[in-house]
Specification:
The protein has 457 residues and is an alpha/beta fold. It has two domains: 176 residues, Alpha-Beta Complex (Aspartate Aminotransferase, domain 1); 265 residues, Type I PLP-dependent aspartate aminotransferase-like (Major domain) (Aspartate Aminotransferase, domain 2, 3-Layer(aba) Sandwich), CATH 3.40.640.10. It is 37% helix and 15% strand. It contains 14 helices and 15 strands. The strands form three sheets. Strands 4-10-9-8-7-5-6 form a seven-stranded mixed beta sheet, sandwiched between helices. A four-stranded mixed beta sheet has the order 1-2-3-13. Strands 11-12-15-14 form a four-stranded antiparallel beta sheet, with helices on one face. The protein is globular. The chain starts with 23 loop residues before the first helix and ends with a helix. Its cofactor is pyridoxal 5'-phosphate. It comes from Natrialba asiatica (strain ATCC 700177 / DSM 12278 / JCM 9576 / FERM P-10747 / NBRC 102637 / 172P1). InterPro entries: Aminotrans_3, Aminotrans_3_PPA_site, Class-III_PLP-dep_AT, PyrdxlP-dep_Trfase, PyrdxlP-dep_Trfase_major, PyrdxlP-dep_Trfase_small. Belongs to the class-III pyridoxal-phosphate-dependent aminotransferase family. This is Class III aminotransferase.
Length: 457
């Protein structure tokens, strides 16, 4: 069947259409949710919207307001909401078989083949895939088991600013203290070292100072006999940090980690849960750095249409598990696997990697232009449609309240955005890869106007 429709035909419109929000029906649903849903619910506290339907890069609330979606369910909907090509395949699979554990199906084998085809560097064609559960946290848990099983060690090394999930093992790797409060102790010998800071600058030899410091800290955790911990079984790293503020490391950082892992018989595990499947203009963000990881974790966009699925792709040399070495009841979600296949095919057919690269350059360029007259903008970062705009106050301190104000202003004018950063002072933009040029222009201008209004009154 043809791989369509074109990206221009996926959406409700190219522009938002919003009255006073939240409207009465949304308000009613929000109130009902507060009465019966968990107190752990977070997102409606910041953006009071009740969703009704969605297409492409647009969503409609219960009152008929139409928004441009620059959030995509935290980077889940790379090929857009309700993509017909993806949904047609998913619906057919639902009619056939849904829950397959790990019995072979065409959907399972075809998705593995697709992932092997697009895998980074030396993993391409030389890798295996394991499905453990429906989330990114599940994929991270599998990677911890892989590293421990291969090395016989139990130490874990991750980075300050990292987010890897909230199950016990994944939470041990996550750096944010707010997620760990009341849940310690977690896994033993999980350590965090600095992630490079692009604002530090270079030394007299032209080397990035923060990168050198970060790599030295990693090396000491492995090789310093007084390093304080067992040498780690692996290094877990986001090739571009997401929750940490859309931090893009220097070009040599991942290569340096690769060398340290090789020198110390440890696994280099790259977390592509948010950056994978085309988000940064490459299939995986590690492709930007010409480094082959030992394993990559993925979820989010892997289900194509928002169906939950987590997976780990790893070099076949590490496939020494026996039967049942890593399990999970929902490791055979066939409709989600079809969703992943069709999403990859749609990205290939419509050259969305180049599209994401070009749109990302345009959007970042517009914010860089605004930064020339807006001192509150400290930095504009990212690759592809993975974009962060950092804000500071007059004294240089993190301007998290300003970001909240910009977010609210954008919502009231029809654009959904979110925040990131250690202090919540980074505006995070992760729209679907099917965002049109016109939507990018309109949405970016609305965001820029919000910034101007919130910084200048």
């Amino acid at each position: 069947m043809p791989i369509g429709p074109a990206i221009d035909d996926l959406h409700f419109s190219d522009e938002p259409a919003v009255d006073d929000v939240p409207g009465p029906r949304s308000t009613d649903l929000l109130e009902r949710q507060r009465e019966v849903d968990s107190n752990a619910v977070a997102y409606p506290r910041r953006i009071p919207i009740a969703l009704d339907e969605a297409r492409g890069a647009t969503v409609r609330d219960a009152d008929g307001n139409t928004f441009l979606d620059f959030f995509a369910g935290i980077g889940v909907l790379n090929v857009g909401h309700s993509n017909p090509y993806v949904l047609d395949g998913v619906k057919d699979q639902l009619d056939a078989v849904t829950h397959t554990i790990d019995f072979p199906t065409e959907a399972r084998i075809d998705l593995i083949d697709k992932l092997r085809e697009i895998a980074p560097g030396g993993l391409r064609g030389s890798s295996n895939v394991v499905f453990g559960g429906p989330s990114g946290s599940d994929a991270i848990e599998g990677s911890i088991k892989l590293a421990k099983q291969h090395t016989g060690r139990h130490g874990l090394l991750a980075f300050e600013g990292a987010y890897h999930g909230t199950t016990a093992g994944a939470l041990s790797l996550t750096a944010a203290k707010k997620y760990k409060t009341d849940y310690s102790p977690l896994l033993a010998d999980a350590v965090h070292v600095p992630y490079p800071d692009a604002t530090t600058g270079t030394d007299g030899d032209g080397e990035d100072v923060s990168c050198s410091r970060a790599l030295d800290a990693v090396k000491r955790k492995f090789e310093d006999p007084y390093g304080g911990h067992e040498s780690p079984a692996g290094i877990w790293v986001e090739p571009i940090q997401g929750e940490g503020g859309i931090n893009v490391p220097p070009a040599e950082f991942l290569g340096g980690l690769r060398d340290i892992a090789d020198d110390n018989d440890a696994l280099l595990i790259v977390d592509e849960i948010q950056t994978g499947l085309g988000r940064t203009g490459e299939w995986f963000a590690s492709d930007h750095f010409d480094v082959t990881p030992d394993a990559i974790t993925m979820a989010k966009a892997l289900g194509g249409s928002g169906l939950p699925i987590g997976a780990m792709l790893y070099h076949e040399d590490f496939d020494t598990w026996g039967a049942g070495g890593h399990v999970g009841t929902f490791r055979g979600n066939a409709p989600a696997m079809v969703g992943g296949i069709r999403a990859i095919e749609y990205i290939q057919e419509h050259d969305l990697l180049s599209h994401a690269t070009n749109l990302g350059e345009f959007i970042r360029g517009r914010f860089a232009e605004l930064a020339e007259t807006t001192p509150e903008i400290a930095a504009v970062r990212g690759k592809g449609l993975f974009i962060g705009v950092e804000f500071v106050d007059d004294d240089g301190s993190p301007a998290d309240e300003l970001v909240k104000a910009v977010q609210t202003n954008c919502y009231e004018n029809g654009v959904l955005v979110w925040s990131a950063g250690r202090h919540g002072n980074v505006l995070r933009l992760i729209p679907p890869l099917v965002l049109t040029r016109r939507q990018a222009e309109v949405g970016t201008e609305i965001i820029c106007e919000a910034i101007e209004e919130c910084t200048r009154g």
